[in-house]
Request: fold
Amino acid sequence: MKIRTDFVSNSSSSSFILAKKGGLSDKQKEAIIRYIEEEMLGKPLPPVEDGEEREDYSDRAGCWISYNVDMEELRKAQQEGLTLYGGTVDFECCDYHYSEIFQRIWDIMEKEDDGSNFRQIDTDLSY
Reply:
């Protein structure tokens, strides 16, 4: 864990240092896209049935569906061949999740590298 010994303000930021050569490799790009798809674009939801109301669909989908959602818009998206995805973002502990996103992406980049093009040097964002 880092300990600040210099001036400390009310800032909620943390610094980091990475070392990298060139752009991202194809494996790194694919792994980051896979992470975003799995963690940030939600989980597949069941199809909305004809006439189904928000409350019933919310129960069946196993997740809370906002009161602002237009059920007809969901049905229309399905009719166009789109799959519905849903999830939640917890803003109560957003700082933690935000730093976790950075760390996970860096871990992916390091894992998908042969050790010569990317390295984490000072990436502890826990303070």
Notes: The helical segments are 26-40, 54-61, 71-79, 94-111. The longest strand covers residues 118-122.
